[in-house]
Write a structure and sequence with these properties.
Largest sheet: 5 strands, parallel
Number of domains: 2
Strand content: 5-15%
CATH topology of the largest domain: Rossmann fold
CATH superfamily of the largest domain: P-loop containing nucleotide triphosphate hydrolases
Distance between the termini: 78 Å
Number of strands: 11
Radius of gyration: 22 Å
CATH architecture of the largest domain: 3-Layer(aba) Sandwich
Strand order of the largest sheet: 4-7-10-1-11
Length: about 350
């Protein structure tokens, strides 16, 4: 029996979470998304639903892993054909107790003992290539495993050296972590490695809560029928992701917007340059998703709202949550009327 995933397009509310996931589907280079929230806020449902609408990928026929015809590492495993075949993008769930060997890959001990051959056995990184690597309760995962995982995700390449076997293979995937902050936080160094972060909570709107319950009960009563009702919307959403991917390369980032990104990061006192890069990539992706050819201030602001909450510096007694007042101040200074006033003041001073 094929498992029916709750349709992504049927999720009610949670706009930030849905947008962050879609943006990473359009541009995995953003660096993944961390979803923080209490239980019952559709975190896992959204991730599984996203996997169902990802465009199919072309894989080398006979290859047990989602590698294209030109990506299969020599000597890692047999490739039965150079002809490609279409498959669904993979969704790999990372167990909390996963070992480094299981994650990265290791020597095939059975083959080594039985045949005396050294052969690489790929890990979960290989299985997740060109799909989604999903970590539920990422805050409970061993810190070392998180470090290794994020390093590989940033490089897009997994290199393993075991017992005389050295193998490299591409490992480009959408990294999604979910967590309940009540069960513990991630270290700031690890938080910063996720491209985007969103906080989710149950809606306090009566109509929204009612609609969530109605749709969920309908799905549980007849999963196949419910999925069929949203098939057209799912197909349209999948097509929109492909179209945005094609437009992304042509989106222009004006010099003024680069300056705006820098001012936002300075205002929040972020460490390093990762925030600048993530906002840049996210703003361009938002523009592509909205069928725009040039990044505007609105795209930059929306990108900052997704990229800054887990990077802003906090003082010991600061209230939790994202401080939008700093963002408002920076954006106000870049309004056209303010720029005109500054130009006029400079002329008067001359």
């Amino acid at each position: 029996m094929i498992e029916s995933f709750y349709p992504f397009s049927a999720i009610v509310g949670q706009d930030d979470m849905r947008l962050a996931l879609i943006l990473n589907a359009v541009n995995p280079g953003i660096g993944g998304v961390l979803i923080r929230g209490e239980k019952g806020t559709a975190k896992s449902t959204a991730v599984r639903g996203l996997a169902a609408i990802l465009p199919k990928i072309e894989v080398a026929a006979g290859c047990p892993y989602p590698f294209g015809t030109g990506e299969v590492p020599n000597g890692a495993w047999e490739q039965t054909s150079a002809v490609g075949e279409l498959r669904a993008a993979p969704l790999v769930n990372l167990p909390l107790g996963v070992s480094e060997d299981r994650l990265l890959g290791t020597l095939d001990l059975e083959r080594a003992l039985q045949r005396g051959e050294k052969k690489f056995e790929p890990g979960l990184m290989a299985q997740a290539h060109r799909g989604i690597l999903y970590i539920d309760e990422v805050n409970l995962l061993n810190d070392h495993i998180v470090d290794v995982l994020l390093d590989t995700a940033a490089m897009g390449m997994n290199r393993v050296e075991r017992e005389g076997v050295s193998v490299s293979h591409p490992a480009k995937f959408i990294l999604v972590g979910t967590m309940n902050p009540e069960e513990g936080e991630l270290r700031p160094q690890l938080l910063d490695r996720f491209g985007l972060a969103v906080d989710v909570a149950g809606s306090m709107d009566k109509d929204v809560r009612t609609e969530v319950v109605k749709r969920r009960l309908t799905f549980e009563a007849n999963p196949a029928g419910f999925v069929g009702d949203y098939a057209a919307e799912e197909k349209q959403l999948s097509g929109a992701i492909v179209a945005a991917q094609e437009r992304l390369v042509d989106v222009v980032m004006p010099e003024e917007m680069l300056g705006l990104i820098a001012e936002i990061c300075i205002a929040y006192g972020v460490d390093g340059m990762r925030a600048d890069l993530v906002i840049h990539k996210t703003a361009r992706t938002i523009a592509a998703w909205e069928n725009e050819v040039e990044v505007g201030a609105g795209h930059v602001r929306r990108a900052a709202e997704l990229a800054m909450p887990h990077r802003q510096r906090r003082q010991p007694f600061d209230e939790p949550g994202f401080d939008e007042s700093k963002l408002d101040e920076v954006m106000d200074q870049h309004r056209p009327e303010n720029s005109e006033r500054e130009s006029e003041s400079e002329k008067e001073g001359d």
